[in-house]
Design brief:
The chain contains four helices and nine strands. By secondary structure, it is an alpha+beta fold. Strand 8 and strand 9 form a beta hairpin.
Length: about 180
């Protein structure tokens, strides 16, 4: 401990402008005691906890090396994948609804049996028109795959027919003047 007013702390969660979870940082004694510890953002660093955190970081680095290799394999598989998503649309090609990141994750599971968290799919806004799209997926830290996605007209749904058909006129429900048919 460099000065009497500072203490070393182990961050239990990411703290903006201070560090990430697992980092060992020097902070003011009052900041640690009055802000970080009550909010369970950090704990005071003891020599035993520092050694434990360093061992955990070393084992995590070894695990990430294996996981990064697996992520590269998954990214290569996803990059070769072309998803075809059938959707209903109007005559101008705009969808009745949209294709979301959750829909893409489900389709990747059906096509390749690879689980992808919908939050890792980089889709700024849902797809709302027919066409081809290149969708980015964060597979792992600094490992990204691009999946070609084609949104096509659903079979059995004719756009011209849908445009020509008018919705049926609503009939009054429970008309008291109508007599029951026998």
């Amino acid at each position: 401990m460099a000065r009497s007013g500072t203490r070393k702390a182990i961050l239990l969660d990411d703290v903006e402008h201070l560090g990430h979870r697992g980092d060992i940082v020097a902070v003011a004694r009052g900041y640690l005691r009055n802000y970080l510890v009550p909010r369970k953002l950090a704990e005071q660093a003891t020599p035993a906890r520092i050694a434990e955190v360093e061992n955990l970081a070393a084992s995590r680095a070894a695990q990430e090396a294996r996981t990064a290799e697996q992520a590269q394999t998954i990214a290569a598989l996803l990059t070769k994948t072309v998803l075809t998503i059938p959707a209903r649309s109007g005559p101008d090609g705009r969808l009745y609804g949209s294709v979301t990141a959750a829909d893409l994750a489900d389709e990747i599971w059906r096509a390749r049996k690879v689980r992808v968290d919908r939050r890792k799919i980089r889709l700024e806004e849902p797809i709302k028109a027919l066409g081809s799209y290149l969708v980015e997926i964060d597979v792992f830290h600094e490992v990204r795959a691009s999946v070609k996605t084609q949104v096509v007209q659903a079979e059995g749904f004719d756009m011209e027919e849908a445009a020509a058909v008018e919705p049926p006129a609503e009939e009054p429900v429970g008309d008291a003047t109508a007599e029951p048919a026998e």
